[in-house]
Specification:
Helix content is 38%, strand content 12%. The protein is an alpha/beta fold.
């Protein structure tokens, strides 16, 4: 019997469109896989079995009638809990949104549905996308399929774990400071954060509005290109979405990178990077060199301030965005209150987790009178300097290569006692968001521990085509066989 759940999205799409397998058969295979391993991984917060089979049957009906079933025909997809959907709940893995039903679908959800995708359900995350390990979820603890004692990364940990464990063909995540790329690294899958504005944020529950971006986590680069082609494009419902055409990114996967210039930032290859991770990433860059790319050294001198800048800007924006969760209009309301003030205080105190409270308080502080200029305004100025560093670097190169994470996946509880230690998990990914660049994480082998390592590639704004071309070339020529995670 064919294990359809091991197929890539583009393989499934082609087989369904040709009528060689039905979307219902593929969906049942994935639902069986979820039933077999979900109790070990705990990636899903909601499994929509009946709804998925209904969507799959509708795709099969279009195939039988000779109609175009769409570019994602029959592809089983998991959605991060931060994306609004009319079906099921939208909780952001927070008690404060427990039981909330969205009155509308996010634009990316609507586009995927129109393209024939099948939604298997929603997957776990750090509460309101605040975290790097998915340990901040109010719902459950998701485990890394490569080692169940280790975290899957965050905040899109459920999205990455579900792809790695073959519990979906594609998942959607969101990335504010690395929340697609870092879990993709830790779980050994492909994760791409598009340029800010490339994909509509309508229906993405906001964490930090100038940094958030939706993107796919997939089994290979071709699937990333396919999914991105479907979800990108101008959206009248999102004023920040770029008025650019939605290209077919799969056409960029030519395999030819001769003459491409790859920049290695000297600040990203210091002794702070572990020797094993460094060796994996340098070897991956050598593969690009062997395929005809030119490797040059570049400098990003203000990158040392990225963590500080990020945690001022993102907390300030979170403080403003999360003010709407007040226990009045929707979500959790504390039952034991005497007046409106007590309702606000008790509802938020009981329903927000500690990391969310920490970031709201930090953000409120840096925006407060007397501190705004010293912190928030200064952070915005340094953000501009970080962006200018990248502008100068891209005068010397076409893509920039760095590690995705300083370490492979770590064990549960290893970094929860020290928030700063946890924040440093995103040290190589945060600058990409601050500079509004596209970035992709690619597996580049297994460490001695048996856990995945990854390389990150970045490109100029809206040059996802070059990014995907380089990533695909590496994937096709690396010779790395990642295999499957050691879960039954």
């Amino acid at each position: 019997m064919t294990a359809w759940h091991e197929k890539t999205a583009h393989e499934i799409r082609d087989l369904v469109r040709r009528g060689e397998v039905t979307a219902v058969e593929v969906t049942k295979s994935y639902l069986d896989r979820i039933a077999a391993v979900e109790s070990k991984v705990d990636a899903y917060t909601q499994v929509w079995s009946d709804y998925a089979l209904e969507q799959a049957a509708a795709v099969d009906g279009r195939v039988r009638r000779g109609e175009d079933p769409g570019q994602m025909a029959g592809v089983p997809i998991a959605l991060k809990e931060v994306l609004c959907t009319q079906h099921g709940f939208t909780t952001c893995a927070s008690k404060i949104l427990e039981g909330f039903r969205s009155p509308y679908d996010a634009t990316v959800v609507r586009k995927l549905a129109q393209a024939g995708a099948v939604f298997l359900g929603k997957v776990n995350m750090d509460e309101f996308a605040m975290g790097s390990s998915t340990e901040n979820s109010a719902i459950k603890t998701t485990r890394n399929p490569w080692n169940l004692r280790c975290v899957p990364g965050g905040s899109s940990g459920g999205s990455a774990a579900a792809v790695a464990a073959d519990m979906c063909a594609v998942s959607l995540g969101s990335d504010t400071g690395g929340s697609i790329r870092q879990p993709a690294c830790l779980c050994g899958c492909v994760g791409i954060k598009p340029t800010y504005g490339r994909v509509s944020r309508y229906g993405l529950v906001a964490f930090a509005s100038s940094l958030d971006q939706i993107g796919p986590l997939t089994k290979d680069v071709q699937d990333a290109a396919l999914t991105l082609s479907v979800i990108c494009g101008k959206d009248p419902l999102d004023a920040t979405s770029a008025d650019l055409p939605a290209p077919d990114f799969t056409q960029a996967l030519t395999g030819d990178i001769r003459g491409l210039r790859v920049g290695m930032p000297r600040e990203c290859f210091t002794e702070a990077l572990g020797p094993e991770m460094r060796e994996k990433v340098v070897t991956a860059i050598d593969v690009l060199r062997q395929q005809g790319a030119e490797v040059v050294e570049v400098s990003l001198p203000h990158s040392e301030y990225a963590i500080a800048v990020y945690y001022i800007i993102c907390t300030a924006e979170a403080s403003a965005n999360l003010a709407r969760f007040d226990g009045v209009r929707y979500g959790f309301r504390h039952p034991d209150v005497k007046d409106v003030r007590e309702m606000y205080v008790k509802s938020k105190s009981a329903a927000f987790g500690p990391e969310v409270k920490r970031r709201i308080m930090l953000g409120t502080y840096v925006l407060s009178s007397g501190y705004y200029d010293a912190y928030y305004l200064k952070a915005q100025k340094v953000r501009r300097l970080i962006k200018e560093d990248f502008d100068r670097a891209f005068e010397q190169c076409d893509i920039i290569a760095t590690p995705t994470s300083p370490t492979p996946a770590f064990e549960f509880g290893a970094k929860t006692a020290d928030p700063l230690e946890m924040y440093l998990s995103d040290i190589y990914t945060i600058s990409t968001n601050l500079a509004t660049l596209p970035g992709i994480s690619l597996p580049c082998g297994l460490c001695a521990s048996g856990l995945p390592a990854a390389i990150q590639l970045m490109a100029r704004p809206f040059d996802e085509a070059t990014l995907l071309r380089a990533a695909h070339c590496y994937e096709q020529n690396s010779g790395i066989q990642m295999g499957k995670p050691p879960i039954a």
